[in-house]
Amino acid sequence: MEGDIQDALEDLGFTGELLEEGALTIATQGECLTADFMALCVWLTEQLNCLCTIQEHVSEKEDEETFRMEMSGLLNELGCPHSQLLGVNGLASQANRLLLLDYLTSELQALKMIGGEEEEKMEIDNQAASPALDQLKAILHALDLPQPSKESTVFDLFTQIETKVRELLSKAPKDHLGQPLLDETLGVKQWSKVEEINSQLNQEYTLRRSMLLKRLDVTVQSFDLLRLTKTSSGDIRDKTQCEINKIMMGKMAMEVDEEEEETKFKGAGHIKVHIEVHKEVRGVAGVEAGERKVVTEDIFL
């Protein structure tokens, strides 16, 4: 792909060291975006702006994070069909960076072929194209700022947000926010690791929550075991109709049909218990007292 992009750049009139063999590969490598790569993207967007009207703009002088946001806004406006390029993490890999250059050069070649006429932009779903759009709208709503229009640029939106936040902070009490926990700026790779850890914690929380709810359900149903009594002959009588107790006792009701029995068994859960009934005789007014103890050995959730 690198060779095809270099040929297209040469046909478009680009001159520079990136046309040399292997230079484009080096410019698109690494965790961070290189200055040569960003400069080439700025040149391509400027050429596109000369042939069609583009509201979004990409500035070479801004930092890498701003460049990513501005490029995402530009691709969204152009109706880029490559959804993996949209968002601030769209340029994290070398393959996506080369795909971006291939897309921009192809668009520029197409505009030159049709004489600079602006084509009808592709109708796309903004929410599907930019997952951060809902979050941005929520921020604007919380700050009582107007929602973005088609003419709004990324730079204008974040300028409004920054101005509003500074205004609110100036009215807040002293040391309202306190000291920041993290002073350094995280990179794309570090943010990816943070998201991975957060996903693992969410899974662990969901598992523990399910376990606690299941244990609570089993504990509540186990109170029916108090209705089990022991007769003078030593036989155990079952005075409950609770299905979970019948599973514990090892005797499901035979009067229900096979389908209903299977449904109730699945609904009761996979539970294995061991019941120990201890009897103790106390000579208080000739009354025999019984102590029963239920020990759960294995609970499969």
UniProtKB/TrEMBL annotation:
Record's GO cellular component terms? tRNA-splicing ligase complex
Q: Which InterPro entries match?
A: FAM98 (IPR018797)
Q: What is the protein's given name?
A: Protein FAM98A
- Mind giving the lineage of the organism this protein is from? Eukaryota, Metazoa, Cnidaria, Anthozoa, Hexacorallia
**A Pfam family for this UniProt protein?**
DUF2465
The family assignment reads:
Belongs to the FAM98 family.
Top-level taxon of the source organism: Eukaryota
